[in-house]
Amino acid sequence: MWTLKCQTILRNRGGHTNLLVICVDTPPKQRDVSFSKRIWAATTSWLSCPDLLLCLGSGRPKVLDYWHAIAKTPTSSLKGLQTAIILIVWEIWKERNERVFGNRSSLPSVIMDKIREEEKDWILAGAKNLAELVG
Fold first, then answer.
1. In whole numbers, what is the pLDDT of the chain averaged over residues?
2. Pairing of strands 3-13, 16-26
3. Domain for residue 80, yes or no?
4. pLDDT band with cut points at 50, 70 and 90 for residue 132
5. Any domain includes 3
6. Is residue 17 part of a domain?
7. 62: CB partners within 8 A, 6+ apart
8. Pairwise CA distance, residues 35 & 16, whole Å
9. Count of structural domains, the chain
10. For residue 7, is it within any domain?
11. Taxonomically, which superkingdom (predicted)?
């Protein structure tokens, strides 16, 4: 699903008024990146890790580069942070699939609620480092 941003222009040429509509496509990938950034921004406060956004937003081309940058992030529990990253990426991926294949989308606040609920399930399943991180 593409979003069209349209602008209507009235033009007068040779005594005739023409209606001109200019539409610009916004590709889904661009919207998804903006959505993902909002989720990551929200998780930095949830995880009490403001440096996380800095290492994720510095133009690293590969996931492995992100992972190494995360390893250098000051935190009380590196393993807990890595588990949280996997959880967040998983929820963003599921939302992306809903948008692409189900033609449904959720607000970032709804996704954050889903992440927090899933976090509780992961902790019950034995993610003790995640429990240390989120308290």
1. 74
2. antiparallel
3. yes
4. confident
5. no
6. no
7. none
8. 44
9. 1
10. no
11. Eukaryota
